[in-house]
Receptor-like protein 51 (Gossypium anomalum), 429 residues
Amino acid sequence: MKQPPPLFFLLILLSATIASAATTPTVSPTPSPTSSPTPPTTKAPSSSSSPLDPEQIKTLRSLHIPTTRDPCIQPSPRNATICDNSKPLRHLISLHLSNCSSDLFLSSAALKSLSSLRSLSFTDCPVSPVRFPSQLSLSLTSFSCIRSLRRLSGVWLSRFVNLTDLTVSYTPVKASGLYVILGHMHQLKTLTISHANLSGSLPRHLNPDLTHVDLSDNKLKGKIPTSLTLLEDLKFLNLSSNGLDGEIPTELGNMISLKNLSLASNSFSGSIPSSFSAIPGLVHVDLSNNQLNGSIPKFLSELKGLKVLNLENNQLNGVLPFNASFIKRLAVLKVGGNSNLCYNHSVLSSKLKLGVARCDKNGFPIVASPPKESSADSESDYGDDDAADTSNKKEKHHGPSKVVLGFAIGISSIVFLIIFLILIAKCCR
Ligand SMILES: *[C@@H]1O[C@H](CO)[C@@H](O)[C@H](O)[C@H]1NC(C)=O
Ligand SMILES: *[C@@H]1O[C@H](CO)[C@@H](O)[C@H](O)[C@H]1NC(C)=O
Ligand SMILES: *[C@@H]1O[C@H](CO)[C@@H](O)[C@H](O)[C@H]1NC(C)=O
Ligand SMILES: *[C@@H]1O[C@H](CO)[C@@H](O)[C@H](O)[C@H]1NC(C)=O
Ligand SMILES: *[C@@H]1O[C@H](CO)[C@@H](O)[C@H](O)[C@H]1NC(C)=O
Ligand SMILES: *[C@@H]1O[C@H](CO)[C@@H](O)[C@H](O)[C@H]1NC(C)=O
Ligand SMILES: *[C@@H]1O[C@H](CO)[C@@H](O)[C@H](O)[C@H]1NC(C)=O
Ligand SMILES: *[C@@H]1O[C@H](CO)[C@@H](O)[C@H](O)[C@H]1NC(C)=O
Ligand SMILES: *[C@@H]1O[C@H](CO)[C@@H](O)[C@H](O)[C@H]1NC(C)=O
């Protein structure tokens, strides 16, 4: 007769906790949607500014951009528009189309009305790429296309001759070479054509004002031309995941502004040129997944700003020329996958987990031997360090899962208790 009350109490407790857990997330989001629409309506358009060109308002409507609110007030609907300040009518200078519906299409009348644009960008907007009126093509200084416009041709892009910024990403580009696209773009400063299935070789001439070049994940072939090494203002160069080959040219050291460099996942061979030491500001160097050979040059450790160094999966050999204080300074160091590379045990601890073997007296890697008996002292040395290290990592990485585990154990013991009490209650009836 005394069993029902605790069971009842427990069930109430359990349902209360479940209810509170279920209600808390649903309660918190509700205030934000109700509060956010209010500020825009209170923001009245300033009476002094002139209205947007009615032709362009019509065009915005045809592009499914809401115009009930003045599109010239910042931030505009979906951040899609920026206007100039001209009178009596304002004009659009920037238009960003994103998440377009599949029935959207660009009419020539719409494009004609947009010739005031300096910047045009598409993100997730699969409209068909129609021919742009030449006035619009010439007026654009910035063009961006990310997962949009289905597919582009080099000739189509080449008509934007006044661009300073060009971005095409996750959109196939068909061109017999980059020179077709860039041939007449003499103002270009930043160039991104990535994940675009672009073929051909790197052009023999590039605009010397370029500061940013990302041509990653394409089908580019051939060697790095000297035109590239002449870019003294270039800060960022990403040529990763292409079919480029040959040696890394010594002249790369002439690119004195370079900060981030990736030549990863190509077929570059030969050694890492010593001219790298002439580039003082290098922060991020990724040469992984190539066929580079020779030893790792010591000067890399003298680059004061270096944060990320990835040399993994090459054929580099010899003794790793880095000490612990240099390695500690880096955010990322990857040297694994170089089977003839090794580290000096009197300089570096095996706890660093560099993914390379320890060197013998002559600077050759000690090949790890599976049988327990051979080279007993080095084996035990490795074993101890491994055990210490993995336990450390486990403590660091699996902190939250312990909480989850504890919670699960708590819940299941409550459930067991309830079942137990129910059984007892049934028994006693
Ligand atoms: C619009 O742009 C502003 C400033 O760039 C940004 O803070 C805001 O999140 C953007 N809003 C939307 C809906 O993208
Ligand atoms: C586009 O749609 C996705 C999902 O429908 C949404 O997460 C994203 O915020 C949208 N982006 C813009 C810029 O409206
Ligand atoms: C763009 O380029 C053309 C031809 O190279 C030139 O005539 C024009 O002045 C440039 N600038 C603008 C804003 O159209
Ligand atoms: C990528 O380019 C190759 C030719 O280099 C072509 O056969 C293939 O269809 C292209 N893929 C896409 C998605 O355009
Ligand atoms: C280069 O591009 C690839 C693919 O687009 C990207 O994963 C990588 O982080 C980039 N590297 C650098 C140094 O920016
Ligand atoms: C350059 O590399 C650094 C270090 O990895 C990174 O923080 C920074 O975002 C990179 N810059 C660009 C433009 O990707
Ligand atoms: C590196 O590889 C090249 C061929 O790609 C070869 O000519 C050269 O002798 C190799 N150098 C070393 C140090 O192994
Ligand atoms: C580690 O290497 C750097 C660069 O080679 C050097 O400047 C520094 O003195 C070395 N530190 C130690 C503790 O040997
Ligand atoms: C390892 O470092 C010690 C101390 O700096 C040095 O005497 C020894 O020659 C080095 N061994 C190799 C194989 O480089």
Observations:
- The longest helix spans residues 399-428.
- The two ends are 9 Å apart (CA to CA).
- The CA atoms of residues 356 and 372 lie 20 Å apart.
- The pocket of 2-acetamido-2-deoxy-beta-D-glucopyranose (ligand 3) is lined by residues 138-139, 161-162 (CB under 6 Å).
